[in-house]
Every structure is written in C-alpha cells, then in structure tokens.
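Researcher: Go.
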Amino acid sequence: MEASGANIEVSEAMAQESVLLTGATGNVGAITLEHLIRANHKVNMVIRKTSAIAFFESKFADAVKSGLLTFTVIPDMTVAGAFDQPSSSATAIVHVATPLAGPGSDLVKEMIEPTWTIDENILKAAKKSKTVKRVVICGSIVQTALLPDFFNPNLVISEKNFNPITFEEAKNDPLSAYLFAKTDAEHKTWSWVETNRPDFDVVMLLPPLIAGRSPQPGYKPIANAPGGNSAVYTALLAGDDVQGVDNILPFVL
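Model: Structure:
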C-alpha cells in the first residue's frame, strides 16, 4: 500500500488493534498514524481542536468512511479523566504528544508538570479500561544521559541509565526543561507501574532526534526550533560553521 495521493489505501482485512493515538498533528505522530492505518489498525486520534479534523478527514477519507479512523477532541489532556472514555474501547494507547514551551514561558507549569500529568492520566485511564493491553510512550534518548555524554564513543546505554539533570537546572531554559520533564516522567512512569501492577504492559520508546518527510501541510523547517527536522536543517543549511554538522550526527536517526 502506498502513501501517495490524497488518500492512503485501506486494506479490506480485519483490523488488528484499536489504537488510541496522541500527537498525530506533529511530525512523528503523523507518520505513526500513516503506519497504523496502512497496517489496518483502527485508530482513534486524540486532537485538541475540532478545526484540525478536516485535514485528516480529507487525507484519510477512505479510513474515515470505513470507520478505521475516528477522532476524539480533548482540548486539555491534563484534565483528570480526560482519557477515560476513549480508552474504554482501545486495545493499545500510543502516546506521542508532549508539552513544549518557548523562552519566556513558565517552564514548570507549561512543560515540566504537564508532561507527567498527561502520562499519568493515560496510565490511569488504561488501568480503568478492560481492553487495553499495551501503552506505548514516546520518550527521547536524552532521558538516558547528559547531552555531552553522547559524544563519548564508549557510552553504553541500558534501562538503568537516566539523565541526572536537576529540577533547578531544568528551570533555566526550554531545552533543560524538556530534558528534565521527559526524564522525570519516565522515573514516575516506572514507579507507577511498580505500585499499581497493571494488567497491561508499558513500553517506553527512546529515539534520538528523528528527521525525514513531514506529513504536515505546508511544513517548513525553522532554524533552532525543537525537533529533528529543525536540528538537521540548522546544522546543514542554516548553521554558521561546520561544528554544527559534527554535533548533530550522534543524535539523528
């Protein structure tokens, strides 16, 4: 099945899973959505604004018509119980969305606290559900070590590795806040699993920066913005020296 054209073809085979997906308006989430539909999984896409649905209804018209793709509007994912209803019929939850904040923002309220609050809401909803078998959370490789450590060719990463950044350091700038928020949320996720012993399994994916085709309409990379596409664009096309090219290589997948 090809992703070309206005629509992605939908197989006539029976859907394998019913997936609740967050973050599909972003680059990684949108590619995840494409793969799920190609694999004939039923997808309930969580979206913050009703106005954004029209684009996906047009791009995935066949999937929408067949009922393979549906939508749930959750304006604020930090609200307690926000995921309870859509999780009640899901067999898997794939959580790609993550709070981001720019310079001058309240990094604690807008990024650090919401990151875990949303994860916890999803875990609690999955526990209430009688159908969820797996929760997949998209984290980041930066949860495992300080950024300079990735230039060490002898670095070995396992499930025991965590970024040691502190809460005080996290309040300095958006990047530090992101590093702490993701690391802190993973710590709390495994603690939650240990305490609650859910019937479903939890998978924490830790990719490096991801770059590639963007399915977002009208997407253009911006220098020094969050994300893998921006990092590659900045290093290869918008940077002032070759050092940026060397620095980006350990992180890009």
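Model: The radius of gyration is 19 Å.
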